[in-house]
Write a structure and sequence with these properties.
two-stranded parallel ribbon; alpha/beta; Endonuclease, Chain A; globular; 477 residues; 43% helix; 17 strands
Amino acid sequence: MECWRPAGLRALIATYVASHVLTVLAAIASLVMLFRVFDSPRTPQSTLAWLLAIVFLPFVAIPLYLLLGSRKFPRHAKRPGHEAARSADLPTDDKPTTRLARLSLASGLAPARAGHAFELLTTGETAYARLMDLIRNAGRSIDLTMFILGDDATGRAVVDALAESAARGVRVRLILDAVGSRRSLRRATRLLSAAGAHVRAFMPLRHSPVRGRTNLRSHRKLGVFDGEHVFAGGMNLADEYMGPTARPASAPRWRDVAAVATGPAAADAAALFESDWRFCGGPGRAVDEPSFADRAVARGDAVVQVVASGPDMPTDTFYDLLLTEIFDARERIAIATPYYVPDAPLQHALVLSARRGVRTEILVPSRSNHGVADIARRQLLRELRAAGAVVHYYGLGMVHAKAMVIDDAFAYVGSPNFDMRSLFLNYESALCLYSSDAIGQVRRYIDDLVSESESDSPPYRQHWVIEQVARLLAPEL
């Protein structure tokens, strides 16, 4: 009887104690996680799924929840100028911006501001030229955050231009997503640091769990130059998005869009960057440095709003703006997006708009660079077509533009895709527009894409089960 010998007995007791302690710890951890799940903003179905998983499979579910479960880490109140934005005067006239201004302030966003020069950049060549011009002509500061910095000619040219600006005394700060720019991050950091610039990685794969989740990426594409000019849109710094010359017809550059807004909203974009910079571990703005808000002056007639969305905001700000505007649409909704995988309420809002006679148009690439997303969108687009919406399929290459126009009242260009990852998981930013000339520029851009597209659905071969599985996977892609 080996187990009754002293050594065997001690081993048996140790095993029993260890299993008992492990069971108690698992019970305590499960109880704590159950309370966290109840306290997290999520759908009832998602809450129930996590609760059942934690109760019946705690050793699997708890690590997964710590890795993927939470999606909100609000830090907006720490942004410089946030209180000033909240105290800004609301419009008193009966314009569409009045309602959205109240919603924005209640959500912690800066309001729409008048007095901007607005320029839409509709090709990768014009966007590249304008960005390089902003970098080379900056006199005081360059703050730039990007998802992808390509390890290619475009990415290297931008890094060289930033290094030259830093060498001549311009304060240069660059934030790169640790996943999106993993191939170029080390080289860019080395070259820019040698020139006196500062580079930070957003959410490295190895980080403290209290600072966020690995699957919550910074998809923002935002630049602030001298506290006066805002560069924003959907373009990353890579060859497929932008470059000095057009690519051959056999390998065209992706159709994308960016914009430059010059005026008071640059202070709001600077405050957003400052918050991200501190989150990445960079030092804050010097106490004696003049505020960008003090430098802001009116440069035109465009009404522009910098909208931040993501885990750092207490609510789903951009999503809330979209729903508000869609339900208020009267004549036309036109959306250009590379990936169309919205949640049920947003999908239903568009279905209802089509049913009540609003011309509802969705433009997507015939085939995007994410096959799962293409499969996931199929049932959703069929539902829209059945409701009377028009779906345009762009077949001349990849459309990566993220833009929307509603009537003559609202438009946006920015980084959010029309999918659940962008709307609920990623850190995103957009320029929302509320003046006729700026809205008209976006409308004409979408109409140009529509004129080159087809409205017939491409042939599908996948079974409906595959479509449903793809929709389940799409939010995490």
